[in-house]
Amino acid sequence: MAMAAPALTFRFFLSHPAHFVALGFGTGLAPWAPGTVATLFAIPLGDWLAVTTTDAGYLAAVAVLFAVGVWAAERTGRDLGVPDHGGIVIDEIVAFLLVMYFAGTSLERVALGFLLFRLFDIAKPPPIRAIDARMKSGLGVMLDDLVAAAMALVAFAVIVRVTGWPA
What are the extents of the domains in the chain? Predict the structure, then answer.
């Protein structure tokens, strides 16, 4: 029988900078659907990046957050004894920022991108499931969500191309 993942506390969240980042600046403490809460948190962050920086600045912020996320997820997973604890949600934030960068920030585009990203992240079709199962590290935690984002963006492009929506 598998052991239950350890419960997260506010004290643990604040006990190390890696935990603060890995737990999505607090969104990973949500009692239900922390990955979805973290993805929602990425929306105002993506909007803010879109209006305060250039395309290069936005992508640089995503790259830096990805690198910091690898470190934070690795450290936090080790400290929790669970490499990909459900409360580690920096991966959802980074991946959805990337979806927003390519899909756009209009309400309709964000909504479609959100639904597609959550679908791929939760369903974990190949190769996402294989990455999730084999790579028990900070990089693995971050990478499976990047692949989910890429798959969501391909589906997004097909939907826009076929239906013309969202414009």
Answer: 17-163
